[in-house]
Amino acid sequence: MPAGGKMRDAVDDNHYRIVMPVPLWLRAFFLAVALFVIVVPVWELHRGVWPLNGFSPFFLVIIGGAWSIGFPVGFTAIAGWAEAWTIRPGRIHVVRRNPFGFRRYSFGPKELAPFEITERESMEGPNTWFVSLVTSSGERFNAYNVQSRAAAEKMRGRINRVLNG
């Protein structure tokens, strides 16, 4: 799933490109939040942990809870993938990038299952939909969220039209 930035689609009869960026400022923001969540509880609560006393386990649980949030957020900020799909007649290329490298995938029509449209339920707003590219080996790539099923159908139609020439 994309995080931040403006999604860009480039469309013509022989080419469809879907870009889902993760900008550097967003990675830096989430890394700063993660470091804050990891460091501040230790800084503020270390006196309750050391020297060891009867309340030490209580404060260690609080610090551990903060770490259980901070470390995954920091890892995602550092290692989360930005993704771009390039669809041409007879081929789909997917490139995933993060600060440590990139991965390239290339699929032909025989390697792909039919594109799926999935609804993502939301507690606090309207539900969104996204198109999933599923390979015959079971690997899944998700496009960015769109606001209606009709928009997801339109995206899937564009992909199929360009892919199948």
What does it look like?
The protein has 165 residues and is α+β, with helices and mostly antiparallel strands. It folds into two domains: 8-22 and 80-163, Roll (PH-domain like); 26-79. It is 39% helix and 29% strand. It is built from three helices and eight strands. The strands form two sheets. Strands 1-2-3-4-5 form a five-stranded antiparallel sheet. Strands 6-7-8 form a three-stranded antiparallel sheet. A hairpin with a 2-residue loop joins β3 (82-88) and β4 (91-98). α1 (24-49) runs antiparallel to α2 (56-79). The chain is elongated, with a radius of gyration of 21 Å. The two termini are 27 Å apart.
- Tell me the count of domains: 2
Structural class: alpha+beta
CATH class of the largest domain: Mainly Beta
Strand element count:
8
Note poorly predicted spans. Answer: 1-6
Strand order of the largest sheet: 1-2-3-4-5
Q: Give the N-to-C terminal Cα separation.
A: 27 Å
> What order do the helices and strands follow?
EEHHEEEEEEH
Please sum up the structure shown.
The protein is of the alpha+beta class and 165 residues long. It has helices at residues 24-49, 56-79, 149-163, and strands at 8-12, 15-20, 82-88, 91-98, 101-107, 116-120, 128-134, 140-142.
